[in-house]
């Protein structure tokens, strides 16, 4: 975070104490949202959030800022719909402008098989409270005139599912809103502090070892992104998580208004327009696990080649920036939230390519879990032990996961 | 990582290959047979560093081979 940003926000930084009720590892959206809801909903303010770099420097600052709930299984749709509703009220609740804008999302299909998937998506979403309709080519053209319905002759647009409530928000403003709200209520946020291990008392986790000394805690939560496997290993918790690199890029400003968000399973990419007019384009994650944050020309070229079939105007724009985040992708593509089987250690991980939209609900539910010691119903299906119990939640509900 | 060396076809672009996963290992500290099975099926080492994994030359000779890859910078070691 730079000095200019700090002048805009009311943040009080503290020196670390030796002990807290709750220590949260990872100062991204999920970690800070959990701290915020612990303070606001449960009155627990003796909380520290420990971040290895600056807050929002990980995937919270590297995503494509899309908020939607059109997933493939009821548990996910309900969870993300709740998150979408919390996002809609976040500006009023925190008093911070997060540039939230409801835009609607078109998920296009180019084959009959694709259309069948979109029909199923519309039915299950609407049944679970996330309004989604199937629309034909003419309606698509009305919603977004820039789409070439012939798909350059190669990807004809047969139809789409239209998710009415989808929105975008400015990602780092979301992080700052939660950080500011939490700090104003007494939460300590420690930037540039690395967690190097977990303090154990027998099996139990009783604190964290950092490069600024040990900090004991009543309960430790990991809200770590790509590096979560190593943190969990300190507690001897094994995770069904692999770390993959995911790339995105923005173009220079497009002079006209680009309505809505366009997503596409077959082309596995998604496009929206930022408030500055830039076109923000993301693609699927790399197939092989990697901790490398090196952006590649290959990824840029293949994504540009695909997306310009349906949105030919993008050919006239220039790529401004490209970046990479390393995301924790779970074995069934659904997030993992809750108890780990080790006392004093809870986890929120597996956010893969869909963590930003889950920030408010993930934080709220994890705060409730920490405060009450019981798993809330909304996230009970996402517990880590679902794998041992043969209740995996396979959901390829993201354009980046085919 | 841009290129992989296939034992049959030589150096080929990575787009021709499919990632088949790392060789699963179960830590010795897990002793319960059921838990060992769960670990074998679901859990990943997710190593940061050298990882031994299987790759499939999908758009080439269609044979499997073993690759040592460094996941820190996504380069092939052997």
Automatic annotation (TrEMBL), chain A:
<keyword id="KW-0560">Oxidoreductase</keyword>
<dbReference type="Pfam" id="PF01266">
    <property type="entry name" value="DAO"/>
</dbReference>
<dbReference type="InterPro" id="IPR006076">
    <property type="entry name" value="FAD-dep_OxRdtase"/>
</dbReference>
<protein>
    <submittedName>
        <fullName>Unannotated protein</fullName>
    </submittedName>
</protein>
<dbReference type="GO" id="GO:0005737">
    <property type="term" value="C:cytoplasm"/>
</dbReference>
<dbReference type="GO" id="GO:0016491">
    <property type="term" value="F:oxidoreductase activity"/>
</dbReference>
<dbReference type="InterPro" id="IPR036188">
    <property type="entry name" value="FAD/NAD-bd_sf"/>
</dbReference>
<feature type="domain" description="FAD dependent oxidoreductase">
    <location>
        <begin position="21"/>
        <end position="369"/>
    </location>
</feature>
TrEMBL record, chain B:
<dbReference type="InterPro" id="IPR038561">
    <property type="entry name" value="SoxD_sf"/>
</dbReference>
<dbReference type="Pfam" id="PF04267">
    <property type="entry name" value="SoxD"/>
</dbReference>
<dbReference type="InterPro" id="IPR006279">
    <property type="entry name" value="SoxD"/>
</dbReference>
<dbReference type="GO" id="GO:0008115">
    <property type="term" value="F:sarcosine oxidase activity"/>
</dbReference>
<protein>
    <submittedName>
        <fullName>Unannotated protein</fullName>
    </submittedName>
</protein>
<dbReference type="GO" id="GO:0046653">
    <property type="term" value="P:tetrahydrofolate metabolic process"/>
</dbReference>
């Amino acid at each position: 975070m730079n000095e200019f940003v700090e002048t805009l926000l009311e943040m009080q930084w503290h020196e670390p104490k030796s002990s807290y009720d709750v220590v949260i590892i990872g100062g991204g959206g999920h970690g800070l949202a959990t701290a915020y809801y612990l303070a606001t909903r449960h009155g627990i303010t003796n909380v520290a959030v420990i971040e290895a770099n600056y807050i929002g420097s990980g995937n919270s600052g590297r995503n494509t800022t899309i908020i939607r709930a059109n997933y493939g299984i009821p548990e996910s749709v309900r969870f993300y719909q709740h998150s979408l509703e919390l996002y809609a009220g976040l500006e009023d609740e925190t008093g911070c402008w997060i540039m939230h804008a409801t835009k609607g999302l078109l998920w296009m299909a180019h084959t009959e098989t694709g259309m069948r998937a979109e029909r199923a998506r519309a039915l299950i979403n609407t049944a679970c409270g996330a309004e989604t309709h199937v629309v034909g080519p003419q309606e698509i053209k009305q919603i977004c005139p820039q789409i070439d319905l012939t798909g350059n002759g190669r990807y004809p647009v047969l139809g789409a599912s239209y998710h009415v409530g989808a929105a975008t928000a400015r990602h780092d403003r979301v992080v700052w809103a939660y950080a500011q709200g939490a700090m104003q209520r007494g939460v300590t946020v420690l930037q540039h502090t690395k967690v190097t291990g977990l303090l154990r008392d027998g099996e139990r986790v009783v604190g964290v070892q950092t490069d600024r000394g040990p900090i004991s805690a009543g309960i430790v939560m990991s809200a770590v992104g790509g590096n979560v496997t190593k943190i969990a290993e300190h507690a001897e918790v094994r995770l069904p998580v692999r770390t993959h690199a995911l790339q995105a890029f923005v173009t220079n400003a497009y002079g006209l208004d680009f309505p809505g968000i366009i997503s596409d399973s077959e082309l596995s990419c998604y496009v929206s327009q930022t408030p500055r007019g830039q076109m923000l384009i993301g693609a699927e994650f790399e197939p092989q696990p990697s901790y490398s944050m090196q952006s590649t020309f290959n990824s840029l070229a293949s994504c540009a080649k695909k997306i310009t079939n349906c949105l030919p105007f993008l050919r006239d724009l220039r790529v401004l920036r490209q970046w990479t985040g390393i995301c924790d992708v779970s074995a069934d593509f659904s997030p993992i939230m809750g108890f780990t089987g080790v006392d004093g250690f809870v986890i929120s991980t597996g956010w893969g390519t869909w963590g930003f939209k889950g920030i408010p609900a993930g934080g709220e539910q994890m705060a409730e879990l920490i405060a009450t010691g019981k798993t809330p119903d909304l996230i009970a299906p996402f517990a880590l032990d679902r794998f041992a119990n043969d209740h995996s939640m396979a959901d390829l509900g993201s354009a980046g996961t085919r | 990582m841009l290129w992989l060396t296939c034992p049959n076809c030589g150096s080929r672009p990575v787009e021709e290959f499919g990632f088949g996963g790392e060789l699963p290992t179960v830590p010795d500290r897990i002793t319960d047979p059921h838990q060992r099975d769960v670990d074998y099926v679901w859990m990943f080492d997710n190593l940061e560093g050298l990882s031994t994994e299987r790759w499939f030359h999908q758009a080439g000779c269609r044979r499997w081979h073993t690759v040592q890859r460094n996941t820190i910078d996504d380069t092939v070691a052997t």
